[in-house]
Amino acid sequence: MTDSQPASGPLFTPAPAVAGGFDASFSGVLLPDxxxxxxxxxxxxEPDGWLHTAVIAYVTASEYLGVFxxxxxxEFDPGVWLDxxxxxxxxxxxxxxxxxxxxxxxxxxxxxxxxxxxVERLGGVLRKLAEAALAGATDGQPRxxxxxxxxxxxxxxxxxxxxxxxxxxxxxxxxLGDVDLETASLLLVHLVAATLRRERPEQEAKFGGVGESLAxxxxxxxxxxxxxxxxxxxxxxWSLWTRHASNLKRExxxxxxxxxxxxxxxxxxxxxxxxxxxxxVKTNEARVAGPVRVPAFALLKLPREKVQKFLALYSxxxxxxAAALEACDQPWQMLPLQSTPLLRFGDTxxxxxxxxxxxxxxxxxxxxxxxxxATTAGDKAWQAWSRAYAEMIELFAEDLIxxxxxxxxxxxxxxxxxxxxxAAFPARKGVTPLNCDTGIDFGxxxxxxEIVNKPMTLDARSGDLDKFKIDTEKAVVEKTKQLDxxxxxxxxxxxxxxxxxxxxxxxxxxxxxxxxxxxLNPVTRNHIEERLKAQGWLQHPRVQPLAVxxxxxxxxxxxxxxxxxxxxxxxxxxxxxxxxxxxxxxxVVDTYGGQNLKRPTRVASDMGDAFKAIEGVLNIQDxxxxxxxxx
Length: 631
Known about the structure:
By secondary structure, the protein is of the alpha/beta class. The protein contains 29 helices and 14 strands.
């Protein structure tokens, strides 16, 4: 850096306050360089639905501050700017502001309001450079202003960086002046984003047709940014624990699952869901200007000791969070924020990350019980619990599949089970049958479904590609053996009298339902198809390409079934569309978005019961004159 005066005039000019709510949302894969990613993914020669719908580039400081430094004839060093910014405001203030930015990040109108404030605070040349960067000056692709990953990584930076020693760069310090907290926090996010970019060697091992370093980035990105329906998560959690946990057939536990949950947490299901819901609602009164700190106890009618137990499970302090994040030096290592997504200040809390909060009190309950059982009863007990939870997921999925299955003229269902297949095709002695979990007969086609509850391991989520390959084998590839075996049986002609089909299937649609989700994109789709071809599974000409869906997408299929959209039509449309290598969600939004879809009957009922129970312990006053508590 040189000691010359700023060439662009003041960094800041007064900006009016911007008020407003939020509307359209964005979610998907976010990368720091879209054109580079597109070229590596092989999607640059023709328009690609997945690329242009699910992938967006976020802005980095190098695209405007870096260009500004280049214009000045100096080298851009993000560390110098970070050092100066970290001295400007207390770390507590930074973390709260970053939490505010993080909650706005997925929402278009909220992000644009914050972006407007930021740009209007810039002066002279720097404003023009920032506007150009956001408009896509680098490669013609507009940039997203705030992304969740660099925002959370900025939190880590603030919490783990020692107090700066010595003096900051005098030119940068002078240039920043009395930068306000919001602008300083946004600069931190963009500077951290610039440090996340990694050089990729041209001659590296391939995964799914691309270099492994890019494959890792795309996989981790999608796991991290995959959209989730909060209403569905609450309803599903309620259904799993209040209905399906008490109807286990294969795995008989010594202790009922709801009692295991109470033993593991000290709370019942309502006491786990209600605080998360209360904090989320209060936090999001307005994403552009709503409260950051919210009351931890006053929003609930629960006894104080119950809320204390919830906070002991899911909240942390500055010092504890800083210590835990110290070891998370890789870009996708987020476990401390994932397990404790609330930051506590006495009798108030800050929601650091909404997706992690809902993950913790929904699917994360499995891990609470798993860890408790492993500690108190040993390996056999937690393995039995894992099998029991997988059965709970399977029962939930079967409820949705039954709603998808059409009712025949005689009043019977076209839904059939593994037991029906076994009865129609008895296994030869000494041969292990390969039968899928369920299927639906649609007359001229049949849909076969295999349900699996294999969560991505922490290592896979954090960027270990070798562990992700193992998880993919267990969650998807190995499960296609059952689908392939059942398809072979149902393609036989003639069919036996006990067959669930009246005649040999003309088309077979194989589906793996991933109860814990799976990041389906061109990279992982290519890898799966390579593995299936190598194994010789699902290669019959009448067998359609494998579909991989999660529970949210299965629920969407049940919603579409209520409108008369049969599942083979939905799957065929997806697998022949520009979005065929991405998730079903992208295709559904593009094809059916804007329709007034109704939730499946059983899901709607469970969701209603859950919200009624939660509402009974809330103490949120709907008072437009009330002053929200903020920090």
